[in-house]
Amino acid sequence: MNATAAPDRASAAGAGRRIDLRSDTVTQPTEAMREAMRTALVGDDGLDGDPTVRELEIMGAKAMGKEDALFVASGTMGNLIAALVHASRGGEALVDEHAHVARSEGGGISRLAGLMCTPVRSCDGMMDLDALAASMRDGYSRHGAPTAMVVVETSHNHAGGRALPLSYLEAVGQCARAAGAAVHLDGARIFNAAVAQGVPPAALAAFSDTVTFCLSKGLSAPMGSILAGSRDFVVRARSYRRMVGGGLRQAGCVAAAGVVALRDMVDRLAEDHRRAHALWASLRGQAPALVGDAPDTNIVMVRAPSDAVACAARLASRGILVRPRDADTLRIVTHRHIDDAAIRTAAAGIAHAVETGR
Ligand SMILES: Cc1ncc(COP(=O)(O)O)c(C=O)c1O
User: Fold this and answer.
1) Which 3 state secondary structure label does DSSP give 270?
2) Which domain holds residue 87?
3) Overall number of domains in the chain
4) Which of 114, 144, 267, 324, by CA, is between 20 and 30 Å from 29?
């Protein structure tokens, strides 16, 4: 089956009538995924294991270059469990001020894992390395406990899908290691970054102790993420997964789609990147002030200075769905159900809506 073929049953969900650029999470499972889910060998993953979940975990660990991995319900759950394990040192998590874990995960690393979450000044998804070094605590003092965890994110959602340089990831790793802190990589879209940079994802994860990636975004699986790290880390993570209610039973029914995602869906992400670039180039051609630098991956940020929320509503009334990132920026995400014709229609509609206010 051709993984890049037309959007199979997506039209049944309305994708045929609308151009849905809100997120790559709207992707429908492929026909190959549906068939794999129907026929998956399953067990009881909360008891003595599920063979399809295990197959997926082994594939995930290998892709990340880690000893072992755990299937979890979502990226948020993966990041939270990583924090719970790394929190045993107490203290603090250092995260970039625009990180998904800091802004969009309900404050779980503080509220549930008990880590003080300290934002570090960042630009374009990258923490200021001097500010990071100055924030590290390598032991107890009267001011607090040692830094337990540093979180990095690539591709970087808030920074418009930036694929962060390996040299930056390495520098963060060195800085954390010097203070004895763990590094967790929120790699929800690590495959987008890897494809864009032409490196294996393991090369991006090499500087972190642990990594989460999502199967449910551009890779098109209906749900699920992988949390990878050392064997010992995964033993502890499995226990915390149970604690947060993530101990699933015949989970192979959905893990089967994840196996197909890793096997068939990675290389085609380059198409999403090409279309994001085409959208960006068209917008820049029509009105250069609307966009900044070219996108690295599948996310395009568009300036809508008058009112991004109202602009998104106007576009929605014309069947073009986008999300306001904040008051003056729209976030646009390409994925498997967006073809070249959709890009042309969206580019014309977005430029018109932002420029004319109509
Ligand atoms: C960078 C990043 N991390 C984590 C997540 C959370 O993933 P999930 O929605 O599966 O909880 C997302 C979701 O968009 C994300 O973009």
Assistant:
1) helix
2) 31-264
3) 2
4) 324
